[in-house]
Amino acid sequence: MRLLSLITLLIFLITSSLSGQATEFLEQISQAYQNSEYPRVLELTEQPPELEEGQLVEVLLTRAMSYERMFRGEEAWEAGQVALKAWEATEARNMNDYAGIQLLLGRIHFIEGAYKKAEAKYSDLIELFKTETATDTSIWLLTLADMAKSQYALSESQSAIETSLIAVELADKTKNLTPFQYWQVYFYATDTHRKAAKYERGLSLANRMVQLAKLTDKSLYADASQNTRSLIYGSLGRYEDQEADILAIISRIKEGPRADYYRVLNYHNLAGVYKNQERYEEGLKLELRAIKLIELRDYERLRLHAHLRLGSLYNENGEYDLAIAAFNEALKSSARADLLTEQDGLLQVAVDSLQQPDLIRYTLTERAKVLYKMSRYEDAENDLETCLAIIEVERQRAKLSGSQYLLSNKARPVYDNFVKLYSTQAAANINEDAFAWRALQTSDQGKAYSLAAQVGKDRYNVTEAERQLRYRIAELERQAVGDTTLRTELAELRLELQQIESTSERKGTTLTNLKRSEVEMLLKDMSADLLAYHLNADSLYLIHYTPEGQVDMYNLGTPNQLGERINDWRNSIQQSAYREVSTIDAGLQATYDERFLKQGLSLRRQLIPDDLKLGKHVLIIPDGSLHYLPFAALPLDSVAGPVDYASLAYFGDGHDISYGYSLAVLLALHTADRANQDYKADLAAFAPRFGGSEEILAVNEFQERSGDKAIPGLRPLAHNGEEVSNLADQVNNTLIFVDEEATKERFIEQLGHSKILHLATHGLSDHENQQLSYVAFNQSSDILDKAELLYFNELPNLPVAAEMVVLSACETSLGPVATGESVLSMASAFTAGGARSTVTTLWQVEDRAMQQMMGEMYAALVTGADRREALQTASQSLRNSSAYAHPKYWAGVHLHGQSGPIALKTGNFFHWSLIAGFLAALAGGLYLLFFRKGT
User: What 8-state DSSP symbol labels residue 509?
Assistant: First the structure.
């Protein structure tokens, strides 16, 4: 009936003649809409005056938009369809009006949770504006803003951020925007950055938004601006600034139709400040006041947030039953009543019914904390299981690695709470083995997700257009570090790539929950004890899984500034190092030695429990700052007097150690099908020439300087050519590329065609901008040739597909750690490209020491030793030498990934030895024969 009455209204309006009241009427509607007086808009449009065709469409669209702003989706959709029919009935169809209607319909899809449909609408609109048939910049800007909201809802946070930045860039260049339109773009962009946890850039946008709100001369927009900025202040821990913004808003609230609405918002936000400041009683009073107004005014939209905050405050105040009740009320606002069920006093929500997954995940995580404190472990586990199901839905949506990183960061608290819960149950001997396994299973889900998703990705069946698009994106990512004006172009290209990814039928790696049988088979194949670490903010756990299938869990206590302790110990390794005999003052050397022992022993005692029984082979899966720790060099005992590093006992003495980013990554590498891989060579080794004079770390500073045309070249490596040439004498079917032949192009040509790729070169790890991390190829000039640098962000798009990549270069294991992911290093980038294993370094390596170490490693590999044993043999050879016994020279070289043997043919040296031996035996036989004949 409602649709029929609207159509009747449409017919009446179309047949009406123009009225002199039209202009005043349109101004009234516009004013009411801008003041958020949506019921007034509906009242005015019930009996409108006579209008022209174009004015009629605008009125109907404004009516539909008012329904949408009031979250009356069904009525908004019907009114939007009426507006569309009115547009179709006009003689001169204005494409801007059509764009406005389609934008509205997309918004209705969004508020109803049909995010894919909304995104499709916005994509069509973007194409419409590209053809320039629609020209209204304000609609174009709103389309981009709404597209960002849909992308965020579909877990493509990276795309959402970049789409919002396109809108900002466009708004800054557009001259004919109203102050409101300009402000609105910044408001949406700021809120998108806040939701995606990009707080620093979000604050910059928020400050600009606050300034733009002043130009609109409306306190409503000033309040919204400061409210959003206050939330960012809170996320950054700037609680005093947050409180100042909120109090400023409260002081401006005047009586009116929306006064109580703004009071609720600001009481709620101020209660959040008090919670963060541990002023729980004050926070509770404010939040209860906010909820009273919500119930009085029926502000359904604010109900979930308020009860969620109330539950968290009750939890902090020790009122657990009230906290549970508040969280139940929050869940009532998340879905229709028929989609909710109750069990043991706890409301449960169906995962596929969620329109606000972030908030529901947070609600259930907070409720699980309360249930944990109440010792209701099974109920806490059920809540966290639901959170995992929500995360899985979000992960299936997120295609771009940047979005996956952001999601992993936000989801990590769920995994942390799970591991804590299972640790408590395992420690209480409640089916210890089962809970320790589930802790391992859950911990692994919270590590290196995007890396596991990239392993095994099809990099061959890619169109040339997509390949070039990815190459251009990687290039712009690096250039944008020093030139922020490129962000818009970069965002547009990523949006284009997202569209390709969403429609691509190429198969990638399907990630499922770890199966215990798969893990046991993997560990048996590797003959390894697994040591998997899980690092929370307030606790550190170790899970030990034996090849026989026994699993134990250890609570290693608080992290106690673990990152700083590891960094200090790494520094002590560098400071205490010497070759042959120390050349520094004996007292200073003793100080460095003592620091090495004291800090190393402290780490070993916390990380390796005394009752831990390990076999010869150990697989370590680190977490957080543990990625930077050379476990093999951890000292076992303290010694008095000068330290003899050659005879000191280390953790690595009795163990062959390899590392993994996660079990999911290891299993993906283990099961990757290489049966049809066309390996034309066993080994391809590269030793570029360097003609500059710069140390590698100096290049990092030049790299970030925008506009540099001539960057000094890298210094020569004295022994890298000799290193790879010697490999040809050890491994048959070897391709050697030295000096000018060791180019980036030649290296890429060898991808997928050599079992082992060996790079004896310079490498750089940039901790702030991992896109700039690289390994270098031919650099004959004294000026750095950037075209011959292979960067971190290029590798995941290349089909590496090697059994092993050896990076005989500096710091190739280093990079920033992405929370919930892994270390973003050149080693992990090669893994993402499909390398089954990598041999990389934790710090700057000594050229001659690496040459000796690599020679020993390959000598062991050709005899059939597995990779882990070969690296251990090579490390031991340096330890046994007088020059390189110190851990600096051998402990920083790590093996990541698979550890089995690689089928290699024996090298030329071995063949010539056989021939020489045969000739010697033949000569001896002839001598004896003739000697006997002579006698």
Answer: P
Of 531, 517, 549, 550, the residue nearest 443 (C-alpha): 531
C-alpha span between 554 and 542 (Å, rounded)? 5
Strands 617-621 and 346-349: unpaired
| Helix/strand/coil for 884 | coil
Burial class (CB in 10 A: 0-12, 13-18, 19+), 917: exposed
Is the C-alpha dihedral spanning 880, 884, 886, 892 positive or negative? negative
Counted residue by residue, the chain has a size of: 935
Closest to 161 in 3D by CA, of 132, 200, 123: 200
State the pLDDT at residue 69.
81
Residue type present at position 444: D
Beta bridge partners of 760: 808
701: Cβ contacts below 8 Å, ≥ 6 apart: none
Structure tokens at 590: 């003793």
508 Ramachandran zone, left/alpha/beta (phi>0; psi -120 to 50): beta
Asked if 264 and 294 touch (Cβ cutoff 8 Å), the reply is: yes
Which stretch of DSSP H or E encloses residue 840?
A: strand 837-841
- Tens of pLDDT, residue by residue over 725-738, are 888 888 888 899 99
Long-range own/partner contacts, residues 22-30 (CB < 8 A, 24 or more apart):
22/49, 22/50, 22/51, 22/52, 22/55, 25/49, 25/51, 26/55, 26/58, 26/59, 29/59, 29/62, 30/62
In this predicted structure, what is the pLDDT of residue 596?
Answer: 94
- CA-nearest of 744, 760, 742, 763 to 700 is 763
Angle at 32 between CA 27 and CA 35, to 5 degrees: 125
Contact 270, 293 (CB under 8 A): no
Q: Which two tokens stand for residue 256?
A: 């009116």
Quick one: three-class SS letters along 247-264? HHHHHHCCCCCCHHHHHH
What sign does the CA torsion over 246, 247, 251, 256 have?
Answer: positive
896: three-class secondary structure by DSSP: strand
Please count the CA atoms within 13 angstroms of the CA of 246 that sit on its side-chain side: 24
> What is the DSSP code string of 689-708?
-B---B-HHHHHHHHTSTT-
| Bridge partners of residue 808, in order along the sequence | 760
Report DSSP state, residue 694.
B
DSSP string, 713-766: PBPPPSSHHHHHHHHHTTBSSEEEEEGGG--HHHHHHHTTTEEEEEEES-EE--
Q: What is the DSSP letter of 46?
A: T
Contact between 763 and 809 under an 8 Å Cβ cutoff? The reply is: yes
| Structure token pair of residue 620 | 């370590």
CA atoms within 13 A on the CB side of 71: 7
C-alpha 16/C-alpha 24 separation (Å) is 17
Q: How far apart are CA 762 and CA 759, in angstroms?
A: 9
Amino acid at 749: E
- Using alpha carbons only, what angle is made at residue 157 by residues 155 and 161, rounded to the nearest 5 degrees? 150
Q: Are 126 and 166 in contact (CB under 8 A)?
A: no
Distance CA 529, CA 534 (A): 16
Strand, coil or helix: what is 528?
coil
Cα-based distances in Å from 910 to 681, 732, 736: 18, 9, 18
Low-confidence residues in the chain, pLDDT < 70: 1-21, 257, 352-355, 430, 456, 458-461, 502-512, 673-676, 693-710, 809-816, 906-935
Strand duo 893-897 + 340-343: pairing: unpaired
How far apart CA 345 and CA 223 sit, in angstroms, is 39
What pLDDT was estimated at residue 355? 65
- What gap in Å lies between CA 539 and CA 73, rounded to an integer? 46
Evaluated on CA atoms 803, 806, 812, 814, the torsion sign reads positive
From CA 714, how far away is CA 694, in angstroms rounded? 5
| DSSP, residue by residue, 147-168 | HHHHHHHTT-HHHHHHHHHHHH
CB atoms within 10 A of CB 468: 10
